[in-house]
Give the backbone structure.
Amino acid sequence: YPGSLAVFLAGAVGDQGPAKHGDRFEATEWLGTQLAAHATSIDTAPAHDVPDALEAAQLIEPLPPAKIRYDGKSLPSWLSRLLVDDDATLSVITVGRVALIGAPCDLSSELGAELMRHAESAGYRPVIMGFTNDYVGYCLQRALYESGSYESSMAFNGPDTGELLVGHLKQMLDQQMLDELGHGAGDGGRGK
């Protein structure tokens, strides 16, 4: 597609890692070849029409109190609060029926899939963008947080942070949809 721009977004990668084949360059080459094969196999056509609706929302959401754990122990709450943000910036941009969802963390794949299902049920084509506008560590579902895995030790604001942020992102998507419906009824579908 001449004139097109390819963009790589990390997505919901909080509990993911690449399969490794070979050492050093061979491992990188293998992974790049797999990614390129998948990317070029996707049946997409370039958009010739510019969507007439663009909506954007950003929310700064307070987080649960910091609870940093190390080697099976928790740091004192006063020290955890000094080391960790107490809020997170969430973003949703819709361009036509594409929803760019900005998660300020290493979002787990399960929570990412939940967020994508929600967006798809509202008629959007979701694209999750990890590490967007902020970084608050790992955001996981409670079961993964309680597993004691590496990811759980990097979930600085406790077991409910991932589900809390995904809930707010879902609400933002729902509001975007309502805003679009409201604009479409009164302005000939132009949107914002």
